[in-house]
Each structure stands twice: as C-alpha cells, then as structure tokens.
Amino acid sequence: MTPDPATYDAWYRTARGRWIGDCEYRLLRRQLALHPAETILDVGCGTGYFSRHFAQDGHPVVGIDFDPAAAGFARSGQTPELAVAVADMTALPFPDRSFDCVVAVTSLCFVEDEAAAIKEIVRVARRRFALGLLNRDSLLYRAKSHTAGSYAGARWHSASSIAELMGDLPIRDLRIATAILVPSGGPLARVLENIAPAGLPWGGFIAVTGSVSGDE
Question: How many CB atoms lie within 10 A of CB 180?
C-alpha cells in the first residue's frame, strides 16, 4: 500500500531517509553541473522533496506530478521559487526547450510508457537533464524489490542497459553515476559512501545525466 503524501515525505526526515535524500541530491546536482539560477522542471516531483532542494539552492523550479494529492502536498510547502502543477509526464504541457534543466527522480520507475516520458524530458530541456533510476545490480534491489510500500511495482534498471534505454534521442555527453552502495545508512555505509567513487555500478540509485544536442 502506497503511503499518503505526508507519511511519504516524513520518511525524508528520519535519519536514514535524510541521509539517502542528501546523497541522491548531491549526486544529481554534481552531475548536472548547474549554472546559477538556471530554471528546472522536476518531472514526477511527488511531494516535492527534490524540488524544494533545488529551489532552496536558488533555482526557479516547476514541479509536475500526475497525482493531485502529491502535487497538492508539494504546493503546500509555499517555497517561493517553486510552482507545482498536475500533469502527465508522457505529454508535458510545455513548449520545446522550456527549461534549462529537467530532472526526474525515481518517477520514471512507475510510468508505463517510460520511453515516451524520456522523450518528453529531452524535448523540453534546453541544456541538461538528469534521470534518477533504481539499480537492479545493487543491495537495495535485493532488500526492497519484492517488498510493499514505496518500492512496490517499481521498475529497476541496470547501469549497463542505460544506453539502450536512451535510444536515438538527440543527446550527448551521457554519463552514469551511482549512490547508496549500502542502503542501511549505518556508520559503515556512510563511511563507504564518502570514499567510494561515484562511477561504481552497484549503488542503489543511478543518476543518468546528459546534454541536449544543439544546446548553446
């Protein structure tokens, strides 16, 4: 059973949830190489956890989600730099190249037509995009892939299959990095996360980043 938005968002305020969220956000921000005040579209923003982080770092953010309850929760945070709307990520209601950067953090894992959603993400991005995916080749997959809750029904990827996933899209400089090698979040997990290179293919969270061809 999927938790209600308030319960889901509260997980990020637990010790383990805060650590995982911070690790994933740092990896995404580093891989995106954001410029100051660049605009961001957060596709499948859910309760707005990552949207809020980008907004708090000085980026005007638009978040969209198909679930009105999740979008309503994200909107209730009243973050000045964040606007939230209900929309379908496979048919984004924005013109081509509307945002400097577009992110989708573990939201593609729950979309039936993943290819259509990725095509839309690339279409509305002006410079860079980032996809946060769940890694099949990880300890997290072994621990959570068959459980209920927020992982129920999720699609898991392998870092080795990302190039095929991106297909013939007009992108370049495709990069893959991972985080959350040991998902327990204990002291050993935190030490290992700090010293392990992001290029290792076994982290539970995959960050796929790239540039849109023709960007200026």
Answer: 24
Q: Report the chain's mean pLDDT, rounded to a whole number.
A: 93
pLDDT digits (tens, 9 = 90+) for 136-170: 999 999 988 777 677 888 999 997 788 888 888 99
Rg (CA), the chain: 16
Q: What is the pLDDT of residues 38-90, one digit of tens each?
A: 999 999 999 999 999 999 999 999 999 999 999 999 999 878 899 999 999 99
CB 181 within 8 A of CB 199: no
Task: Report residue 23 as tokens.
Answer: 């690790």
Pairing mode of beta strands 205-212, 125-135? antiparallel
The domain segmentation of the chain, as residue ranges, is 5-211
CA distance 178 to 140: 12
CB crowding 44-80: b at 16 or more within 10 Å, else e: bbbbbbbbbbbbeeebbbbbbbebeebbebbbeeebe
Task: State how far the Cα of 3 lies from the Cα of 70, in Å rounded to an integer.
Answer: 11
Q: How many CA atoms lie within 13 A of 35 on its CB side?
A: 9
Q: Residue with structure tokens 């209730």? A: 76
Is the domain 5-211 a CATH 3.40.50.1820 member?
A: no
pLDDT (tens digit per residue) in 173-203: 999 999 999 999 999 999 999 999 999 999 9
